[in-house]
Design a protein that fits this description.
Layout lengths: L3 E8 L2 H12 L16 E4 L4 H11 L11 E8 L7 E2 L5 E2 L2 H19 L4 E7 L6 E6 L2 E2 L2 E2 L1 H5 L2 H8 L5
Antiparallel strand pairs: 1-3, 2-6, 3-7, 4-5, 6-7, 8-9
Length: 168
């Protein structure tokens, strides 16, 4: 049996954004990343400059962020490694249930577009070089022409209601 993981983290400073960008682009050492599998990583939305991706969206809306503003929100999305059965072959190839991964990636992107708006999803990076494949999706929390993370996320209970509306 597999599970889905969604971790959400606010990005408030250029330092937060720069550190995440170094991880996304692999310009920093990532001890648990396999260099032979880095070629399988991809980015379908955004560029290698996460700060520029975020500022481009903020500037397009004519927003001047407050000093304490949440500039963006990172969504880390994955599942247990057994869900995709990823394995590295001796010659450095990646094998597994690629059709399951493709469906997971497609559904994640659709969910993000529906929940936050297509224009607010500024970077979508996929890492296949770690133990479990995962998505880093970066959303700029623009609501009615303003940065407003609280409206999008709310507190823990509000977020839980939006993601899992039915009680388990």
């Amino acid at each position: 049996m597999s599970f889905v993981v969604l971790r959400i983290e606010k990005l408030k400073t250029p330092g937060n954004i720069g550190g995440l960008n170094a991880h996304l682009t692999r310009t920093m050492a990532v001890p648990n990343a396999d260099p032979e599998l880095t070629k399988y990583n991809s980015r379908s939305i955004g560029t290698d400059d996460l700060n520029e991706d975020i500022l481009k969206r903020i500037n397009a809306c004519g927003i001047t962020p407050r000093t304490n503003a949440v500039l963006a929100v990172e969504h880390l999305m994955t599942s247990g490694k057994e869900a995709f059965n990823y394995q590295k072959t001796p010659d450095g190839q990646l094998l597994g249930y690629m059709d399951r991964w493709d469906a997971f990636e497609k559904n994640a992107k659709e969910w993000l577009h529906e929940r936050y708006g297509k224009e607010n999803l500024v970077n979508f990076t996929v890492h296949h070089d770690e133990q479990a494949p995962h998505i880093h999706a970066i959303v700029v929390p623009v609501v009615n022409g303003k940065l407003n993370c609280r409206v999008l996320l709310g507190g823990r209970d509000k977020l839980r209601e939006k993601i899992c509306p039915k009680k388990m």
